[in-house]
Write a structure and sequence with these properties.
By secondary structure, this protein is α+β, with helices and mostly antiparallel strands. It is 46% helix and 16% strand.
Length: 645
């Protein structure tokens, strides 16, 4: 007869002596032993509540990741992963590293073909994979327990610090985790109601994991152990059920396995030569701490509460034993994987799904107000600080994303980039990093890399790139010859500084020894086209001195209107970007660039207005004469076109 096992969730029952369900029973998905039944159909309102709850979970997952991407720099391995997909698909397959299967790179190649190769676009692929994985975690929790457990498990899974990290990098590990969840669900379905079709699909799913990363064999072993523990079939009936999917998986994985025979030897050699020994207890503790990251107290408490509640209700149930083996698997796997550098959280990411199951199943037993409160805490944890590296990494991320975003803002076609990166004890920068970011941010060209011999050619603007702003003196002298230092940006690792030639190399000499080398007149978009009433005009002025000056002088810039005279002005000492404002401190042979903002009057009629310049003595207002000045001793330097209603 059919009877519910004590303390077992409504969707899991034990069937003894029945080949077919009773007419009133929910649809059975197995014929023997401990059987998995399809969850009983929900009434309309509970079903809608589950749907809306998962929609909220998906929105939290997406928002907590997508808002971080613009300012998030890439790891070297992420750059390499995208960089090798920049050729044709056959080339991508040829360029895959010795220790990686081709699966993830094939999908990444197709994704970048659809969306481009910007860091933001390629990372969106991992975030979308996260949403699929969270849906699968919900399905696993719903299948093992109930919908509430599935929702809470998905929330907990999305809040783990390491999941936040792994779901924002362009690597194949999260895809592998998602395929593992697919394979687990397929295995549950297959052992619930074995059929050739389900066995074939399961075998293909297991093989797909192996073609994303070879460490998937550990996840495959966990799926096998899980089905063994949860099934009541005797071994002589259980093992034959694994033969069809296992045989299909083995045949599909054989070519890839044969091609990786040397990887184990190479990995052992790397561990022996470069990776320091860590005590097993410390290694294991660090491994579990990696999962929860910066919130060990929060997640430790939630896991303990979940475990206590689950054991209180389902202490002797097979699912409980399976969940225990699930989260304790690293204890056994550590001894067989650490010497091949495969005992990292990324290689065993499926363990976090097991912890999510403990949390979801346990917290689902709490009273509704407490359950909602804990769900809110887990939802907020998704927005916790994002860890930018992993414990085993020794090379920090380089700030290429933030620097190239800034460079793109200030770049002009024809700009040159000169690298002066010789530095002791600096982070190495690989050539493919420059290549990838240049392609990503300047797909149509316009940025030229130059060497020392090419600096003498006519590059009006050169970006001088140094480690920590400390370039070689002889290189800086070559870059600055005929160019003025300007905008500088960067951080403690890399510094970009712009050097640019003046519009007028000869310039206009004022009687006091100041030489004006021309001006750029730009609107708020950096264009010399059109302005609005009340708009701001950015003036970039170039100066030099023929000899050292005794006094300091001021500069005035004016908007001139015929019949009216000066209608807007800005007077100040030279607002030099790189150098002193006092003209008495300027050295002959150097160029100085200043920027100042002139605000247009409002209202102003449509028309073209001259911009005038004056150099004067600040102590008495006397204007200095130069060739080409007006009777008012003002030098015309350009015009602005103003459009008004």
């Amino acid at each position: 007869m059919m009877q519910a096992a004590p303390g077992i969730a409504p969707d899991v029952v034990q069937i003894e002596g029945l080949e077919e369900p009773l007419p009133a029973s929910p649809p059975i998905e197995a014929g023997r032993g401990l059987l998995w039944l399809a969850p009983p159909p929900l009434r309309a309102r509970p079903q809608q509540a589950v749907l809306w709850a998962m929609v909220i979970v998906f929105l939290l997952l997406f928002a907590s990741r997508i808002t971080r991407l613009n300012g998030l720099n890439l790891q070297k391995d992420e750059v390499w992963s995208v960089w090798i997909t920049l050729g044709s698909l056959p080339q991508t397959l040829n360029w895959v590293g010795y220790d990686w299967p081709p699966g993830h790179f094939i999908l990444l190649h197709l994704w970048r073909f659809l969306t481009g190769i910007s860091p933001f676009a390629v990372r969106v692929s991992t975030i979308l994979t996260l949403l699929i994985c969270a849906a699968l975690v919900f399905r696993i929790g719903r299948r093992l327990f109930d919908p509430r457990a599935g929702i809470l498990a998905a929330l907990a899974f999305g809040g783990f610090t390491y999941v936040i990290f792994l779901s924002t990098i362009v690597r194949g590990y999260f895809l592998n985790l998602t395929l593992w969840c697919v394979a687990l669900l397929l295995a549950i379905n297959y052992f619930a109601r074995p059929s050739p079709r389900r066995g074939i699909i399961l075998g293909v799913a297991l093989a797909a994991m192996f073609y994303v990363h070879n460490t998937a064999v550990m996840g495959m072993a966990m799926i096998g152990l899980f089905t063994l523990i949860t099934s009541r079939r005797p071994l002589f009936k259980f093992i034959p059920l694994w033969l069809p999917p296992g045989l299909i998986m083995a045949l599909l994985c054989l070519p890839e396995a044969l091609s990786k025979l040397d990887v184990l030897r190479i990995k052992r050699d790397i561990v022996d030569r470069f990776i320091p020994y860590v005590r097993p207890d410390t290694r294991l503790l660090n491994h579990y701490l990696d999962y929860v990251g910066g919130q060990p107290a929060l997640w430790g408490a939630l896991i303990l509460i979940g475990v206590a509640l689950v054991l209180d209700k389902w202490r002797f149930h097979r699912r409980t034993l399976a969940l225990g083996a699930w989260v304790l698997a690293p204890v056994a796997l550590m001894w067989v994987t650490w010497n091949i550098d495969a005992f990292q959280a990324r290689h065993l990411a499926w363990v976090m799904v097991g912890f999510a199951m403990w949390i979801g199943a346990g917290l689902a037993l709490l009273p509704r107000p407490a359950m909602i409160a804990v769900a809110l805490v887990m939802g907020l944890s998704m927005f916790d600080r994002l860890p930018l590296d992993e414990r085993y990494e020794t090379v920090k991320r380089l700030p290429f994303v933030t620097l190239f975003e800034e460079l793109k803002t200030h770049h002009r076609n024809g700009d040159a980039l000169f690298l002066d990166l010789t530095c002791a004890n600096c982070i190495p920068i690989d050539a493919e990093e420059w290549d990838y970011f240049t392609r990503a941010y300047f797909p149509n060209g316009g940025l030229t890399f130059v060497n020392l011999d090419q600096l003498d050619q006519r590059f009006e603007r050169v970006w001088y790139v140094t480690f920590t702003g400390k370039g070689r003196d002889e290189y800086r002298a070559r870059v600055s010859t005929g160019r003025a230092p300007g905008l500088t940006f960067g951080d403690e690792i890399l510094t970009f500084q712009r050097y640019e030639s003046p519009p007028d190399a000869v310039g206009v000499l004022f009687e006091n020894g100041l030489r004006f080398h021309g001006a750029e007149i730009l609107n708020d978009a950096g264009l010399p086209l059109v302005w609005r009433e009340g708009d701001t005009v950015t003036l970039r002025l170039w100066w030099s001195v023929d000899q050292a000056l005794e006094y300091d002088y001021s500069v005035g810039a004016y908007l001139w209107q015929d019949g009216v005279g000066v209608t807007a002005q800005v007077d100040a000492p030279p607002q030099v970007l790189q150098g002193p404002q006092e003209t008495s401190k300027w050295t002959p042979g150097s160029l100085f660039v200043e920027e100042r903002i002139l605000t247009l009057p409002y209202p102003l009629t449509t028309g073209t207005y001259p911009i005038m310049l004056s150099v004067y003595q600040w102590w008495d207002g006397t204007r200095i004469i130069a060739l080409g000045v007006t009777p008012d001793k003002l030098l015309p330097i350009g015009t602005v076109y103003v459009k008004s209603w």
